[in-house]
Amino acid sequence: MKNLFNKLLRRKTETVIDDHVTEIAQDPDAVSINPFTGQPVDQQDDQLHQDVDLSDTMAEVPNSAPAQRFKRPDFSALVGYFSVGPSFAMIAFQAGSFGLRGALIRNSRHYAVPAVVAESRNVDFTRAIAEVMEQLKQHQRRLPKRAILITPSVVSSLVDLPVSPLRPRSDEQLQELIRWELEGAVTQQNKQWLIGSMLVERGYLSPQQRDELVTELQLRQSQGGESAMIRFGDLAVQMKYISYAQLEECFSLQGKLVALDDDLVYGWQAEENLSDQTLSDEVLLSAEEDNNSAHKWLVSGMSKEVRRRWVGAFNLNGLKIEAFYPSVGASFASLSHRCTDQEQWLIELHLEQLACISGHAGGVTEIQVAERLPGAVDAHQINTLTGVLPSDLKNLYINHQEQLDDQQLRQLSQELGVNLHSLTLDVPDLVTPDGLSDDALLSLSGAADHFLHHVSRARLSWIAARDIEPPIWQKLLQPKTLKLSAAIVVISALSGFMLWMHANMWQQEQRLSELNEKFEKESALQKQFGTIISQQSGLKGQIADAQLEVEKNTALLSQLSRELSQQQLTVPVLLKAISISIPASVKLVSVQRSAEHVQISAEAGGDSQGQEFTHNLNQLLKPMNLQVRSSDVIHDPENRTPLPYAIDIVLQTAASPLQPSTFTTPSGTRP
User: Fold this and answer.
1) Pairing mode, strands 586-593 and 597-604
2) Average of per-residue pLDDT values in the chain
3) Rounded to the nearest 5 degrees, what angle is found at the Cα of 258, between the Cα atoms of 256 and 263?
4) Coil, strand, or helix at residue 534?
5) Sign of CA dihedral 385, 391, 393, 398
6) Distance (Å, rounded) from C-alpha 272 to C-alpha 416?
7) Burial (Cβ within 10 Å: 0-12, 13-18, ≥19) of residue 313
8) CB 216 within 8 A of CB 223
9) Taking the complete model, does pTM exceed 0.85, yes or no?
10) 3-state secondary structure at position 55
11) pLDDT bucket at 158, cuts 50 / 70 / 90
């Protein structure tokens, strides 16, 4: 009963919160006020919202297919007895170079209505949130604990993915596909945090002063020299447009909002099909595998480190941040409250960017972002961004946040050839800080409408503030969990097997000891027998080696005896043959004999005498089994003696048929 009572009270504070909504709960003929037009909601628009359940305001996990909600019974009449006055569903924060602003959001029947807005210029996330909450407490003592954040740190884009909304893939696969598509968009979005744009948005520089600084900086860079190396911020300080403390303040904020080369976190949303849900070939193919097809997905991404900083700052202030929304395209989420056309087009003017978002009631069909040129926005910039506008386009809306006056809007409308309307926010009794335009809250209001389910989920993509924990049964079916479970089973089985083995081993201990004693005795005998066998084998080997050595020595001795006798006989005859063979004009220098050959060196007066000496010597030595192996007669021009030719003759023993040059050992092998 207590849980039912708390649920009824929670439903009361989230839905029936202001005077005209209470009248709706009590009087079916009452109507709501549209915060974008300030006019009562007509009967047709009222009928469109009657079937929407607004009680579930918690953020959903990004999902490709829209969740089916159950219609709950209406206890508003009963809860009316427990009403304690106006309350708020959440706090919507918006961050930027200007600082941080927060708005208390009323969750009416059809719209998310901002009621009180506070602002802080502190660059510290935690202190800025605390200052905003302190200002809001002056109007509402008890603040909601839930919050969302709209920030340029979140990048949104429309990409084509080979994933059917009817067959979504796992989060890991979708994040990998989105990562490749968003890298370029993240780089482009980082220009939002240029020092120049931050100084302008914080009010330290005017747009005209920024343009002057850019022109001066380009002039110095073209001239070269040391002045060309100056940075934009230092130049602004040098020209006394800003102070050094203001520049350091923007640098500090830039370092917190931009995290380069950091991991990204993603959100995604598929387009909703609001046409007749009939069977068709397209629906059938989308329900099957279609890796070769492409489907439109509205995706968003932001730095994981930046998200961690914001989540920590909100936690320190006792708030639970639910979702992060992009600044670009956030106002398009609530355009359906203002526009009922089939095709809806919106131009957003940001400080450094122009954005064009087009779509329909069921989602976004195209997002185009371009860098904004200096000066006022003209038709050329818009045409460059949008391309050729559809011929049947009736109305074009622009969110300029009072940057354009009525005359400029009329001129743009004439040049573009389309009805151009300003998207404005008209909320009665809205409390804002001095100098803050209501239109500056359009992105904040659009994100709140999306979060509270007042518009189609496909009109905006958001990022969850924390990673969603899967259910317990999904955790148990994850590969890591399955591997761990299998490892535990295997370890348990091995442990049981080891216990069984130890029990059996204890039974075999006695048997093993007996076998060990018997084995030791037999091993000792076998060892002795092996020692004897090894000694015998060693002796046999030594005997065989000795016999072989004796045979080799005998054969070598015989050969040496034959060669010695031959050398004794050959030396005198060789000298005699040399003396006979020397012709005139030839001088014998040396005769050297080695074991294998005889080398003769001589000098001659001419080449013919050298050739003659070689020929004669070869003829005389044939009977002695000697022959000339090589002979060289070399002329030395530097030798001024009468014998300028050097003769080198090498003799070797000629193999005789009766006396082979090799011998055979008794074993039949050559040495």
Assistant:
1) antiparallel
2) 77
3) 110
4) helix
5) positive
6) 30
7) buried
8) no
9) no
10) coil
11) confident
